Amino acid sequence: MKRPISRKAHGIADWTYIPLTALAPELLGFKGDKRPTNLARIMSGLMLGSATMTRSEWGLFKYMPFKAHLAADVGLGVLSLMAPWLGKFSNDTRARNAFLFIGLSGLIIGGLLTQRKEM
Questions:
Q1: Measured between alpha carbons, how far is 40 from 60 in angstroms, rounded to an integer?
Q2: What pLDDT score was predicted for residue 22?
Q3: How far are the Cα atoms of 7, 28, 36 from residue 50, in angstroms, in the given order?
Q4: HEC sequence for the chain
Q5: Phi/psi at 114 (nearest 5 deg)?
Q6: Which site in 15, 19, 103, 119 is 20 to 30 Å from 42, CA atoms measured?
Q7: pLDDT in tens, 58-117
Q8: CB half-sphere exposure, 76, CA atoms < 13 A
Q9: CB distance 60 to 52 below 8 Å
């Protein structure tokens, strides 16, 4: 399968994804529940750390190999998919669906569609 997302395009997706994940509680209306709100902020911070340390055009410190960055994306995607049940907020439809979307998009973009070529 040809992977259509380049490393540079992946960086653009990351730098869009990070603030949207942090702001998801406000944007999607689940700020009143502290568990998913805090988790969204923690996940955004982890994504930010990964993005800034990745060896790529958009990485600031260039320590982490790009393939490790993609593995971290997949790991956070899996965590995000499980989060509503592990965090006991699966009854909060908005929060649950936000985390399912974050998880699926992380798995699809990071795991399936991004080219794995190192810089």
A1: 23
A2: 97
A3: 14, 25, 21
A4: CCCCECHHHHHHHHHHHHHHHHHHHHHHCCCCCHHHHHHHHHHHHHHHHHHHHECCCCCCCCCECHHHHHHHHHHHHHHHHHHHHHCCCCCCHHHHHHHHHHHHHHHHHHHHHECCCCC
A5: -90, 135
A6: 119
A7: 999 999 999 999 999 999 999 999 999 999 999 999 999 999 999 999 999 999 999 999
A8: 29
A9: yes
pLDDT for position 1? 76
Q: What is the pTM of this model?
A: 0.92
Report which residue type is found at 105: S
Q: Which residue has the tokens 């993609």?
A: 70
pLDDT in tens, 14-63: 999 999 999 999 999 999 999 999 999 999 999 999 999 999 999 999 99
Inter-residue contact 110 to 74 (CB < 8 Å): yes
Q: Counting every residue, how long is the chain?
A: 119
